[in-house]
Write a structure and sequence with these properties.
Blueprint lengths: L12 H27 L4 H23 L9 H21 L5 H7 L3 H12 L6 H18 L9 H22 L5 H22 L9 H24 L2 H4 L6 H13 L5 H28 L1
Helix pairs in contact: 1-9, 1-11, 2-3, 2-8, 2-9, 3-7, 3-8, 4-7, 4-11, 4-12, 5-7, 6-12
Length: 297
């Protein structure tokens, strides 16, 4: 999930690229840690709860520095809606990691930009340009390469990974909607405030007490999650989205290496091919969007 600023506050492509590499590393670390925590018995609901609670603790000093007044919002109901879809995205995404290859889950969630485009047309009333439709169809072809219906066993993890991308896309679209009225700090803080009770209820019902030696992993998971969001936001603030967005695809090779070293999971050639197709489609769409914006300014 990302909240990209509309225009860079200080154009610095090199710094933007480095921040995006940092975001990719943090995302890979976050997914690896949550996969390990779930292997040790933690539920996806608890993973979301702990990430948000620790993330809130990390974020509070920032709020204190900028001032509590920055949390004022004229649209609290939209923050609640965004939190609901963000919560669903995390739960479905994390649960998919327990059912399919980690790299497959990550590759399927590369469809997020395509889903975001679809929901932006619906929620933000953006126009459906031909290049968006072409990118969507190409991206769907990439999904079919990864899933290979009829040629590979498909379990619940596949639709869960795709559902996670769709839920995250709605959450990201809501972020863009909220950015019209609220500051980034307000959007982040209200997200923590609303998701914590959403995650607390099912966590209490399905509670599994983590072993004492897992708490450092939980902390690392939360830090990596917040770090990914921070790096992502800084990157979009320093460089154009068309330049830095494709770098986020580094998540796949990073997570594939970790999955092989830690869990002995190998990534099939179809996953790489499908991810490459989705990568080309979304990168092309992003570059065309940037050119269109440049012409209208």
């Amino acid at each position: 999930m990302a909240v990209a600023s509309g225009s860079p506050d200080k154009h610095n492509p090199v710094a933007g690229i480095l921040w995006m590499i940092g975001a990719a590393c943090c995302f890979a670390a976050s997914l690896s840690l949550v996969k390990a925590l779930q292997d040790d018995g933690m539920t996806p609901f608890q993973a979301v709860l702990f990430r948000q609670v620790f993330g809130l603790a990390i974020f509070i000093p920032i709020i204190l520095r900028v001032g509590v007044k920055s949390l004022k919002t004229p649209v609290p109901h939209r923050h609640c809606m965004r939190a609901v879809f963000g919560f669903l995205g995390m739960c479905t995404g994390y649960y998919s990691l327990t059912m399919i290859n980690v790299a497959d889950s990550v590759a399927l969630q590369f469809t997020l930009p395509i889903f975001t485009m679809m929901f932006a047309i619906w929620l933000l009333k953006e126009r459906l340009h031909s290049h968006r439709l072409i990118a969507t169809l190409i991206g769907f072809g990439g999904v079919l390469l990864i899933v290979r219906p009829g040629f590979a066993d498909i379990n619940l993890g596949v639709p869960l990974a795709l559902a996670a991308a769709a839920f995250y896309a709605i959450s990201d679209t809501m972020s863009r909607w909220l950015a019209r009225d609220d500051a980034f700090t307000s959007i982040m803080m209200w997200n923590f405030i609303f998701i914590i009770p959403l995650a607390a209820v099912p966590s209490a019902y399905f509670w599994v007490t983590p072993d004492t030696n897992l708490w450092m992993q939980v902390l690392g998971f939360a830090i990596a999650g917040v770090g990914a969001q921070f790096c992502l936001t800084r990157s979009f603030g320093l460089a154009e989205a068309s330049l830095v967005s494709p770098i986020l695809f580094l998540r796949l090779p990073l997570i594939a290496v970790i999955a092989f070293l830690v869990w002995g999971q190998t990534t099939e050639i179809w996953t790489w091919l499908g991810a490459a197709v989705i990568f080309v489609a979304t990168t092309w769409m992003t570059r065309v969007e940037t050119k269109i914006v440049a012409k209208t300014q």
